[in-house]
């Protein structure tokens, strides 16, 4: 009632060719038209849907008139030079029913990888909203779930006392029905070299909203797999960069402990994560990471294990040499060099973590592992180069931190701000997903025209609390 169909056509993007769209026009003023973003008589707005989502298009439009424009415009593409969140935040639909509506999320949108899946499950658990994620890793060479993705879903479901469906190797669609989050002890084992740190990143925000019990006032998680895996931050980054920043700037009580390092291809590493929930009714505070300050200290962490034992000295020396050449002799640099034992590391591996601290509390990190057929010193040089680039950019966070801060900014109260390099596709995906699922609002500002290299990401947070 009150809506008339004007035109139906295929959406203009190839990736959305299975979706249909129609233009709807308001024919009278009323409360239901205001749900369509202030649609007035005579004004039109596009609404799109997947054929078959409802028995008829008319039924879907009636639901939209009541519940608002839950439009679907899946998109998967390359990096953008300009954020266009208004055109991106529409990869979501709902299935009405007596329970909270199930949210359907296109797992192939934007970055379309494991991070989108993990964040979807984490936000669903926090909001206690059932979700269905489809097209999981659709653009990858081997779409669908891998063992580490299954472990991530399982641990979040365990933490929130939820149930899951269709979680198996290669699955491209999963469902999660969250329950209540309660503190406790949990174990997540990838049974491979899958990254432990990515599992920790996914569960950490969820655990902040757990209901503590008398016997377990904090949540204790143990993760098994790869602690120093490719394409993921190593455990040292969580210990020395992420967690110190969360504690100092957000007041979160989080601890990460490394028990044993695990490397590709067998894994076997163990790390622990302890999280104290937020106080009842108290949200995460806003964070301002826009004042970089001056570098006060640089720390080089170098380690080696197994067949690479004794390479840690080469790694540290390469990092030190590059840092001195780039930053000069005035910067204070300290080193922590570790020869791992059979007790502290499984199999062979080596790597570097370089950390720069500033007088305003910013922490910049660079990481690298020793690659096959490359000299060990290359890892030290790569980690040093990442920190040098971050320092010379003038930004307040490194690329890893940029990606990881998005979810905390989204959950927090008030406006958070972060000076960073151009938002990565991972960051943009996290922003779009958070806006869709919890109602926060991100704004991205390009660098000013005075030679500044830094972008500014702002977020009006969703102000979520533990109730």
Automatic annotation (TrEMBL):
Protein's name in the database = RNA 3'-terminal-phosphate cyclase (ATP)
Family, per entry:
Belongs to the RNA 3'-terminal cyclase family. Type 1 subfamily.
Every copy of the RNA 3'-terminal phosphate cyclase domain together lies at 110-444
**Where does the record place the RNA 3'-terminal phosphate cyclase insert domain?**
290-392
Organism equals Ostreobium quekettii
Question: Is Cell wall biogenesis/degradation found in the keyword set?
Answer: no
According to its UniProt entry, the protein's GO biological process terms are: RNA processing
Q: Known catalysed reaction(s)?
A: a 3'-end 3'-phospho-ribonucleotide-RNA + ATP = a 3'-end 2',3'-cyclophospho-ribonucleotide-RNA + AMP + diphosphate
